[in-house]
Amino acid sequence: MKQSIFKLSSLSHKVIMALAGLFLMLFLCTHLLTNLLMLTGDSSAFDQAVQFLSTNPIIKVVEYVLFAAFILHIIFGIVVWLSNNKARPVKYYVATGSETSYFSKFMIHTGLIIFVFLVIHLVNFFFVKLGLVAVPEYASNNHDFYAMAVVLFKDPLYSLIYVVCFIFLGFHLKHAFQSAFQTLGLNHDKYFPAIKVISTIYALVISIGFSLIPVYFYFFH
Amino acid sequence: MIKLDSKIPGGPIADKWSNYKNSLRLVNPANKKKLEVIVVGTGLAGASAASALGELGYNVKVFCFQDSPRRAHSVAAQGGINAAKNYKNDGDSVYRLFHDMIKGGDYRAREANVYRAAEVSNEVIDHFTALGVPFARDYGGMLDNRSFGGVQVSRTFYAKGQTGQQCLLGTYSSLNRQIAKGRVKMFPRRDMLDVVIIDGKARGIITRNLVTGEIERHGAHAVVLATGGYGTVFYLSTLALGSNATAAWSAHKKGALFANPSFIQIHPTSIPVLNDYQCKLTLMSESLRNDGRVWVPKEKGDKRHPSQIPEEERDYYLERRYPAFGNLVPRDVASRAAKERCDAGFGVGDTGLSVYLDFKDAIAKQGKKAIEDKYGNLFEMYEKITGSNPYNEPMRIYPAGHYTMGGLWVDYNLMTTIPGLYAIGESNFSDHGANRLGASSLMQCSGDGYFILPYTMGDYMADEIKVPKTDIKHPEFEKAEKEVTDRIDRLMAVNGSQTASSFHKRLGKILWDHCGMFRNAQGLQKGLELLNQLEEEFWKEIKVPGSKTEMNQELEKAIKVADFFEVGRLMIEDALDRNESCGAHFREEYQTEQGEARRDDANYSYVAAWEYQGPGKKPLLHKEPLKFEFVELKERSYK
Amino acid sequence: MDIKLKIWRQKNASTKGKFENYELREVSPEMSFLEMLDYLNKQLIEGGKEPVTFEHDCREGICGTCGLYINGRPHGPATHTTTCELHMREFKDGETIIVEPWRSKAFPIIKDLAVDRSAFDKIMHAGGFVSIDTGSAREANAIPINKKISDRAFDAAVCIGCGACVAACKNSSAMLFVAAKVSQYAMLPQGKVEAADRVQRMVAKMDELGFGFCSNSYACEFDCPKGISVEFIAQMNREFLSAKLCSHKNH
Description:
The complex is a heterotrimer. By secondary structure, chain A is an all-alpha fold. Chain A contains 8 helices and no strands. Chain A has a single domain, classed as 3 helical TM bundles of succinate and fumarate reductases (Up-down Bundle), CATH 1.20.1300. Chain A is globular. Chain A starts with a helix and ends with a helix. The model of chain A has no long low-confidence stretch (mean pLDDT about 90). By secondary structure, chain B is α+β, with helices and mostly antiparallel strands. Chain C is α+β, with helices and mostly antiparallel strands. Chain C has 2 domains: about 110 residues, Ubiquitin-like (UB roll), CATH 3.10.20; about 130 residues, Orthogonal Bundle (Fumarate Reductase Iron-sulfur Protein, Chain B, domain 2). In chain C, helix 2 runs antiparallel to helix 7 and helix 7 packs across helix 9. Chains B and C meet through helix 3, helix 5, helix 6, helix 11 and helix 12 of B and helix 1, helix 2 and helix 3 of C.
């Protein structure tokens, strides 16, 4: 049943999801580092980084990989969710009280929220760069993201949605990070407890890190 | 008229089996493909036989009542499996293992069979290891051994307290391999209800599909019964609730002789009865007696908490009675001693039907950690069931029905008195005499299935190569099926008011009280009377709800209980016949002044093989004399 | 103690089932959960009603036959305990106990609380063995095996095939069951020879039978009565990955 779509076994599916996920996590790190440059007080450091990232040919190639990773991760995630639903056609009367990696239950939900955010985010920034969306009048050019951020984060509703989405992303990542290691077979009593801790730290860093920016712009800029 | 021929080959004991194997006829591979074998039961014996026969090229059909062959009750054996590897350099040998088994069985087993079981034991260990059975190992990576009840060498291979499970899963895996290859076809959830005999030979079986209720016919060139023992006849026993006598009993009724039915091992260390609805007694491995000390209060009816009873007011009765072996006396001796104390009013617990097994001294000496390493899982299991922690207070234990040394009579080929019908493992009588030593059942079952039956069956099959596939439309199949259906209809038609289990419980009590650890002629007669009355009541009052054409667990039980009445009666007959005490069979009239068993080798050195004579008729006794050429008969003393 | 029961009743695979309520008086806390059901059944039969069908055999936690989903957990509230080892002292007087069968597409219901777990056997047929014929084994001590590795193989081998992992998993995944067997053999020299083929065949069979994907929620480990670790799932993932990457096309 599950092999029908991609002719892949359940394990291969999971491995591809994990690899794509890990790549996305790496991307989040670089994205966060770049974004944090906005907190330096003026736009120069951030602009330089943007300049570098949008012109470097290697980064251009990586961008395609990034797209592929997003698409694979999302499609496979939905396939997994659909087939898992089929695996238990009649549900339990009493939902399971078993202690599980809590956020694993909500991966599809947090994932979909993140997806919606991703679309908004792309429209606001990335599509502008690509020229798919008109450059707002307050921005000097199609990659003047600093100016765009300043304006967008002055909107309390936008900032709130942004922060909430990153909290959900945190939930997603808390499970995802260690889960990817498990899927790739890297669970071992010597280091797996550490990986679980790192997973939580990583999730916290990402969600707090990204959330700092709207908070900064809304309250202090 | 059946004439018993044990077919024991001549020659020195050590050469009998190898010479015999060389003389057995073979079936060529092309012919094996045309031959069909039915194996009933998927425990260590059945699964190993089925896979070995499948490997040889026969077409094998395997049946079990469980939903999967992996659940057969061999899975519950805890302690270990014996082999004469002599890895410990402690003087063990095939001869010693043979000798220990003959002595442990109180000289009531056949020398040649026992020697062969000891001989193939080493191959069994090799094979299990090759199958990936994770036996315990020492730090050098070699297989470890431990000592076990009543012998002086360490020859027991083990996998924590789950040796049976690991060995069974090993045989299950070899069975799976043959199923995948198409050599073996598996029929789970089937109760075998009759054997079909055509022209004097076993040609098939009648089964009930436990999901649909359908009565099915299965034909073959030969039938192997690996259906285990009948210890559940006592209702409360250490066996699985589904274990039963029906398959073997149906063979008995069709002409297979039943040997030594009264030889039933009562295991000394089971968790006692805790409530009135209890239907199962859980065993605590015999290995616990390596460190635990058995005691009762010196004062009758002393109801104090065990920790309140000072050392000098405790009676370590095994150490007192058997100073040489102490707590490590064989099972039958330990069981009787416990019952004797309880019957005399010294028992502990609410019912007074238990004794203490105390680890206080062992914990003080070796530390809690050492004890935990050895018995952790058993202690945990005890606590789960009783709610009491054996690290803090002594365990309470009591003897429980465990293993049946008796079973279908078989010759050296493991064939019953019906040609083409074999019985292996616990379902036959052959290797344990009147008492089985610990860790030798796994050994015998897998030896029978992997290394003995595949050879001996070839000799029979050599005559079958021209015989076409059995026709299941044969009138004998019709007849057998009708008998089965009639019996089921009869049970369903009673429509009384009592459940099968309630009858089973009462029957078990009668047998336990009158044909249990201590027996006497008067009590046995009384038991027989009570049993007959209860059986009459059963056929008037049994209630089987539901219909026969669906999954119906109550019907399954009723069929089994109906047979247990007949098995119980034969047990009593056999116990009455044997005017001596030997092994697990203890007749109070025949004991020494110290209360130990007194054997009568002059008059009772025989296998009692009973022939069924029809309902309501007394069974006919055939005696197979036991000759001891290679061991000397001695009084079995553990003092 | 008195208890209330809400039990799933279903005549057979093709009819619809529903919950039935029962009240049971004078239950002893010393009873095992299944003895309590025996007690209920006795009353039902004597009252002319159909008893509840549930599966059980050894009643000492080793055969793996029993398995009920009790108050939202496979094998009930006690840890590392099979249903047959669960005792009524784990419940409160007056408590309502809800009993359901294992729910999984791969384990269809046969009757009431009995389900068909033959899918597990089918996975085993696909590769849960070491291919060695009787008689061809070499001397058992010819291959030393490191004690730690052998002990670990044992830890994987303790699986009783009860299906609690599937019942507990929100995705009805059989990964823990398959991983235990794959890992046991992959660790032992006897099983290594076929390890790459075995893991691929067993995983393919598992997928085919309709079990869900593993999403690493670890409920299986939590509810496994034998406490089998999800590390073995990682080990299987590892075995699978290396088999896929390293094994040749035709095997």
